[in-house]
Design brief:
Order of helices and strands: HHEHEHEEEHEEEHEHHHEHHEHH
CATH architecture of the largest domain: 3-Layer(aba) Sandwich
Number of strands: 11
Number of helices: 13
Helix content: 40-55%
Low-confidence stretches: 1-9, 332-336
CATH class of the largest domain: Alpha Beta
Radius of gyration: 21 Å
């Protein structure tokens, strides 16, 4: 998706993207998915080698929406209290006081998330799913809106832990970030070695909550829900779509959470693209991002270097897009 540099005061998400693009060169797919996750109230897992502006992208996004940003560098010696906070004994009052951790922010960057042990992942799992943390006997809600962006480095394995499938399933999207083109890299070097422009706050968190509500009201035809369910079902029983050979590569297919997130993300993407209704292509464009991390591959797939994307592309190829008439829900048009 190419973002127009023209400002449009009637389209707040375009203004947000314009501000982010002052700093970030290229990475249009990542930025679009970040906005989709933000509007759909989901979390996003980003995989890419170091130096591809993953941290800078979400930090710049936080500045553009006026949200609080926190970054946690995950390491093997991290403990749950380093994320959610802990109770501290006050000798003067003789009571325990609660010190809240860095997860209490609007945008949380979990850098190199696969470097933390199971206890830390469990603590993060609660805040991702329930948007709250439990310290002692007290439960504390995190700010709203709330988005977790986690990064993984695919080229290192020393000192890393595989993420539990239950936690990976909580991420709405997994985005793969690649290297920039030579032209983009030239602009990156030119921009980063000069005077970097300041990012302006264009909306606030209150307005973002309104936009989230508007995105949730985007119309989805039942044929698209059937299409999403069919795609997810094909990851569990590929023989149902004529791909019997794929069964040997998949141990477990995607969960029903994949179907839900596919529709929620498609509604947000349609909203970003300026439509009050979802098109089949919106669902198709997000299928890989929603599904790739939810497949549990077999040893045969790992041995033959078959990736989730390879399998999903075959499923998408044999599953035709549904014919959906262009119509919208009466009197339910979101404000752009």
């Amino acid at each position: 998706m190419e973002f127009s540099p023209a400002l449009n005061s009637d389209k707040p998400m375009e203004r947000v993207l314009y501000e982010v693009k002052k700093i970030i060169v290229g990475q249009d797919n990542l930025l679009e998915r970040l906005i989709v996750a933000l509007l759909a109230r989901g979390h996003i897992l980003v995989e890419g080698v170091p130096g591809l502006a993953k941290t800078m992208a979400i930090k710049t996004l936080a500045s553009a929406i006026g949200g609080q940003f926190q970054r946690i560098q995950f390491t093997p010696d991290l403990v749950p209290a380093d994320l959610i906070g802990t109770r501290i004994y006050n000798q003067k009052s003789g009571e325990f006081n609660t010190s809240l951790g860095p997860v209490f922010a609007n945008l949380l960057l979990a850098d190199e998330i696969n470097r933390a042990p199971a206890k830390v992942q469990s603590a993060l799992l609660e805040v991702m799913q329930e948007r709250q943390v439990t310290i002692g006997r007290e439960t504390h809600k995190v700010p709203n809106p709330f988005l977790v962006m986690a990064t993984q480095n695919p080229i290192e394995s020393e000192g890393t832990y595989p993420l539990p499938e239950a936690q990976v399933d909580r991420f709405m999207l997994k985005v793969l970030v690649g290297y920039p083109t030579p032209t983009e890299e030239f602009v990156i070097v030119e921009r980063m070695t000069g005077l970097v422009q300041a990012v302006q706050k264009v909306i606030d968190t209150g307005e973002l909550l309104t936009l989230q509500q508007a995105a949730s009201e985007v119309y989805v035809d039942t044929a698209l829900i059937e299409y999403a369910v069919k795609l997810v079902g094909a990851t569990r029983q590929p023989q149902g779509v004529g791909l019997r050979d794929l069964g040997q590569y998949i141990t477990f297919g995607a969960s029903p959470r994949a179907s839900i997130n596919l529709i929620l993300a498609a509604k947000a993407l349609a909203f970003v693209r300026g439509r009050p209704y979802v098109l089949p292509q919106d669902v198709r464009d997000l299928a890989l991002d929603v599904l790739r991390h939810r497949l549990v591959l077999s040893y045969e797939a790992l041995a033959t270097n078959v990736s989730s994307d390879d399998l999903l592309n075959q499923i998408l190829k044999v599953t035709p897009l549904p014919e959906v008439p262009l119509r919208e829900r009466p009197n339910r048009r979101p404000a752009f």
